[in-house]
Amino acid sequence: MYRHLPYRFWVFFIWAGMMSACLFNRPLLPVDETRYVSVAWEMWVRHDFLVPYLNGEVYSHKPPLLFWLIQLSWWFFGVNDWALRWIVPLFSLASIALSYLAAGLLWPQRPIIKELVVFILPSSIFWMAYSSLTMFDMILTCIVLMGMCSLLQLQRNFLSLRWWGVYGLAIAGGLLCKGPVVLLHLLPVALLAPWWHSGAIQGGWILWYRNLAYAVLLGIAMALCWAIPAGIAGGSSYRNEIFFGQTSGRLIESFAHQLPWWWYAQNFPLVLLPWVIWQPVWHGVKTLSLKEPQTRFCLAWLVPIFITFSLISGKRLHYLLPILPSITLLLAYVLESVVADKVAWQRWHRNMMMGFAIMGAVVALMPTLEAFEWQRELALISPWWPSLITIAAIAALWLKVHDVRYAVFFVSNISAFSFILLVLGFFQINAYRYDTQPLAQKLAKFMADGQAVAFYTTKYYGQYQFTGRLDKSITVLSDAKQLVHWAKQHQIGHFMVIYKEIGQMDEQLLAAHYPFRNQNIGLISSLTLLRNPDLALTFKP
């Protein structure tokens, strides 16, 4: 099977299958995806491509690159949600290609490594989960990979203006994608070049660092072409946020959401699944040596950012996505270095397939295990989906594995197949809980009829602005007195409240109700509140 089709085609089919399963079976997910698309929507409605807005207010939390790409998709294909949802998957595919290029630059005499990389990276569960989400991290990963490939090219010709320009472009792209964090990803590797470089540098390292400074300044200058006009247009508050709030202010704010320094280390195995549990990986780890420049390069990419993120108390697992390719390169090297015969590879293959078969059986049986608090939700999932994983894994037990390429190929395919089936099974019963469109269209109808709309909550994430194509802001109320006052001022209006269970609210008081993840949102008219003044005290914003 593996030898009948070039591996590049297999990788494309794996990627296309996973992305299709995700994008065609789930809506835009609140609150992140819907928020970012809503920001792009408000920029589109306002015809303002400098300053991002969300619900009528300046949005300073992220730079505009993703918002520009979304609007570019609308410019080509019209305003819709299907074109924009392919932006991040295409960056995922580009990242796989850049990882292939990086492996070829690191190990030009060992072509099998780059062949393994393109199977290991897209079948890592962490990569699969974020490859279809309209967020910034996969785009940043692609930009970081572009910068790393430019550094690898520069080790051959460090005077090349073209590759220093590419590195500067990566700095600019990262700044416009997610702010100064790109410097944490790209600068340590360049600064540590004397440690990982394999040969002498003509002209000395002073010339290297001078060129590096020029490239960084070039990237910053390109990013300032947006930041300066945007800061002027957005006002002093927005200007302070984009120039200072995304650096020192972000670090200070992160301490309000403290997680221990070891949190990333504790959860790191999740990032490496399923490869971290595969026996050949552990057999090959002993081949890693700090004497080799390739290992040093990958560690210079991985270790500084991992330590820095661990010391910052504000943590999210997806922040680690841009360092996953460095780990994948090391995994590919480790696996290619394993010396074993066909018998050993066949045994390791069967052990891994048995692991997948057991996983599928456990997931299929979970609805019957009442010890789990989420048993009720899992009971709704058809056991056929995880059962298919077990069947496929058992069938794969009898496949002939000749060497590391065949072994990685089969693990990659069964991992992707398992992910696809679990996505299909989950969203078959839960997609409606994440679909904000029905309520958003109801709000759009209210606004079209001239009615005011409010949301009784502490914070509104804009999840209805794009899906309802709203051209007006939703009033956010966080106090009972504010709510009553608003109802008096807008007697022909409706407001939204959040509640946990359906039975928690008197349905006769609701104009409509909609599921929202593990909660519900009810629509109540202003007149209903005014007729029942004590009703406001029963809500929690």
Specify the biggest β-sheet: 5 strands, mixed
Helical content stands at: 55-70%
The helix count comes to: 23
Strand order of the largest sheet: 4-3-5-7-6
Structural class: mainly alpha
Question: What is the ordering of alpha helices and beta strands?
Answer: HHEEHHHHHHHHHHHHHHHHHHHEEHEEEH
Properties at a glance:
541 residues, mainly alpha, five-stranded mixed sheet, two-stranded antiparallel sheet
Task: Quickly describe the structure.
The chain is mainly alpha-helical and 541 residues long.
3D architecture notes:
With 541 residues, the protein is mainly α. It has helices at 7-23, 32-46, 65-77, 87-106, 111-120, 125-130, 137-154, 161-178, 181-191, 193-196, 205-245, 248-254, 263-272, 279-284, 293-311, 324-337, 342-365, 375-378, 384-396, 404-434, 437-448, 480-489, 526-531; strands spanning 53-54, 57-58, 452-456, 475-477, 493-499, 512-516, 519-525. The strands form two sheets. The protein has a five-stranded mixed β-sheet with strand order 4-3-5-7-6, sandwiched between helices. A two-stranded antiparallel sheet has the order 1-2. Strand 1 (53-54) and strand 2 form a beta hairpin. Helix 2 packs across helix 3 (65-77), helix 4 (87-106) packs antiparallel against helix 5 and helix 4 (87-106) packs parallel to helix 7. The longest helix is centred in the middle third of the chain and has 41 residues, at 205-245. It is globular.
